[in-house]
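so im writing up the methods section and need the NB-ARC domain-containing protein record in one place, dumping it here so i stop losing it
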Amino acid sequence: MLRVERDSSKPHGFKGFITRSTKLLTTMNTRHEIAKEFEGLKIRVKEASERRTRYKTFFETDTWYKTDDAVPKQNNTTIDPRLLALHAETTSLVGVKGPRDQLIQLMDGEGVPSHQLKVFSIVGFGGLGKTTLANEIYHKLKEKFQSRAFVFVSQKQNIRKILRRILSQAGFVPPKDTNIEMWEESEFITALHNFLLDKRYLIVIDDIWDTSAWDIIKCALPKNMNGSRVITTTRIEDVARACCTNHIECVYKMKALSDQDSRSLFFIRIFGSEDMCPAYLNEVSSEILKKCGGLPLAIITTSSLLANQPNKLKKEQWEYVRKSLGSNFEMSRTLEGMRQILNLSYINLPYCLKTCMLYLGIYPEDYTIDKNDLTRQWVAEGFICKDHGIDPEDIAKSYFNELINRSMIQPVDTDFNGDVMSCRVHDMMLDLILHKSREENFITIMDDMQDMIGHQDKIRRISLNMDDSTNDTAARSVQLSQIRTLARFGTSSQLLSFKLFKHLRVLGIEISAWPKSDPSLDFTGIRHLFQLRFLKITTEGYHVVLPSKIGDLQQLETFDISGNWKLPSDFF
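--- predicted struct ---
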């Protein structure tokens, strides 16, 4: 029993009652705020506990997959060289050489005079390897052409950006004192058309989703008589035919991998050689491959799941994968079927990697993600559990390597030591991530601040893709104080009021256009972001105005700004 003695020096009776009542009234607001904070803290703890329980349920009930073995061992996880070989030797390992040579022969074949412009389209289901095939053709032929470019379109198309990338890659140098970032779409079309008019060019336009994008892009491609070639890729046959002006002979339909190529890709990923598979796994492996339907993405993802098990030779593990893949994907090739295959690899991630994986959803489709940025963002968000004597950033890099090994993300650039320095997320894997993020309310994706109107869920992380300036009144009508990550991409220079983001930990702003008028970007409001740990601002031609002092940002760990800016006086 705890007894608290009353302080005899304090007034008693009616006078004491008045004193205590006055004090209670004067501190009521403070008490109310503290109560609100405690209530918010209780809710966040409960949400975290529920999330952790959901992530751990599978591991606690499963008999063959153990979390202790699955979690990367601090900073010593390296990338499996067999996986890098798959990406480095795509031609020989995933059956690309035959289709590549067949399509090249078609491009130079009879029917249309070789000096005329030819447009070819590769069409097929997502994950079949359309981009890989187009990339192989591009690298095989590019030296024969004066100008060349390889650009992505994707569902959220920005025609100005696409035309600008083609111009840049093709070798166009704008006249002195010309700011092409201020050009209208028609000016890009004219400039590209005139630049390519007397050249032999090779252009690859990857992942076109509708004919409207092609109708604009084709206006910029002159029908010269220099033997130019254009390759498009798409999932939609109507789009493929439109690109080829209904010349069916110019449409190449991607086929699934043959049984032999599927086996090669599958076993080389797991064992390093096609001939190393034990005989007792032949039957179950054949059944797994049937369910993958000859899709390289499905095969690599599934084989990487098995390759990363500590006891990968146990038949029980292979049987579990076979059962988990559900119905035969070869018989029913749908987005949901592919999502089911990818979901198996996601389910088998330890909970720490699940969180890191979902975080990739803040980046736009086809975005090349810098490893250092990503791992520092994970640390800033608090995803990395601290381990005595080990730098959290090193642990984060081991997580990155683990996701590469599991084929959840794809390596892009490597340094001279063979270390992967950047990655990309396959668009079908990104579809799964965004699907999971919506279920978990993990990340909110918006293309316009007006999308915030009527948004009911509490926003924790937000990715804004803004190409036009809009009124930020909508943002003020939504609860933004709990946001931990704000990632902003696009051409618009409009900024939200940073005072709205009381608990922001990660702030990434990327403006991919030059200023049209005022070149100043006001970031003085970041002085209120006392929880900020990661700050990266990427611009060209803008003057970034920072607060004169940022000494109060005690948590800031990453400070990365491009463009013109003045160092705060108390930076060091």
